[in-house]
Design goal:
By secondary structure, the chain is of the alpha+beta class. The protein has helices at 16-23, 31-40, 44-47, 77-90, 101-111, 150-165, 175-188, 230-245, 259-268, and strands spanning 7-10, 50-56, 59-66, 69-73, 96-100, 120-130, 143-144, 191-196, 199-209, 213-220, 249-253, 271-280. Helix 1 packs antiparallel against helix 2 (31-40) and helix 4 (77-90) packs across helix 5 (101-111).
């Protein structure tokens, strides 16, 4: 471990405890970084990137996960600018910058003159949480998926991703990697769906989890089945299962303009606790 008392440096295994304490100051907002740290122990060969810490008088004051996803952790605007300075010296490796709005905005203002133009910026994304029972009845037909469901599940995941992100996850020959990711979530018991007569009509996944929280992604209902309440009852079922078996608080973030989704989450009992921003390249 480096002995730098001030400034930004890569973290390693010896920094894990201090990093988890930092992330634990807001464990739901920081669930992605917490999850990555716990599953890799901040070992660079497992991270597939780096985690940087910013130190002051020898104490970690902020951090930044730097991989395909660049995610600031407990970072003020000043911290974000310090991380941006280091990022500019190394070049962009992230395909997405995501996290609390103020930190992401400060980071982007600093790097925008040297990094390539993003494909899209979503500045105001409500970050939602629920830490109690859902307010609507759970759909009893929602269950964990299995590998036998892949013929229906995988195309639904591709459709959701394409609709949400604006390009297919199979672009550039990435289909095998994306299929492996979907299969991994199924194997972990982190993939949930409802099927009607063999056809998938609702799905959602846990993207990451810690002892404090689980973050949901990939909530999707086929266009021809929207407006039937499947998202509300389906998410209620997911909240029930996840809170009972994975983590006590369930979170997600949603596009500000997606009013139907926001209405569904409000009906279930999710409440806004922060604003995220996402920059996609």
């Amino acid at each position: 471990m480096l002995t730098t008392r001030d400034g930004v440096r890569p973290l390693g295994v010896a920094d894990l405890e201090e990093f988890l304490a930092l992330a634990g100051r807001d464990p739901v907002v920081n669930v992605f970084a917490d999850y990555r740290a716990r599953t890799t122990s901040l070992e660079p060969r497992w991270l597939g990137g780096e985690v940087w810490g910013r130190f002051e008088d020898g104490r970690m004051r902020a951090a930044c996960h730097v991989g395909a996803n660049l995610v600031p952790v407990q970072a003020t605007a000043e911290d974000a600018r310090a991380f941006a300075e280091r990022a500019m010296s190394k070049g962009r490796m992230a395909s997405t910058v995501v996290g609390p709005h103020a930190a992401v905005e400060a980071f982007w203002r600093a790097v925008s003159t040297t990094w390539s133009a993003p494909r899209e910026i979503r500045w105001q994304q409500p970050h939602l949480e629920i830490a109690g029972p859902p307010l609507v009845a759970s759909d009893p037909l929602v269950r964990r998926t299995t590998r036998q469901d892949m013929a229906q599940l995988y195309p639904a995941c591709v459709a959701m991703y394409t609709e949400e992100v604006g390009l297919s996850p199979e672009t550039g020959g990435s289909g095998d990697l994306y299929r492996a990711r979907v299969t991994q979530l199924v194997s972990r018991g982190w993939s949930f769906a409802r099927f009607d007569e063999g056809r998938l009509v609702f799905k959602a996944e846990v993207a990451c989890a810690s002892p404090a929280a689980a973050q949901i992604q990939g909530v999707w209902v086929p266009p021809e089945r929207r407006g039937e309440g499947l998202a509300e009852s389906g998410m209620a079922a997911v909240v029930d299962i996840v809170r009972r078996e994975i983590a006590p608080t369930v979170s997600l973030y949603v596009n500000e303009w997606n009013e139907p989704a926001r209405r569904a989450y409000r009906a279930v009992g999710f409440a806004e606790t922060a604003r995220f921003s996402t920059i996609m390249f």
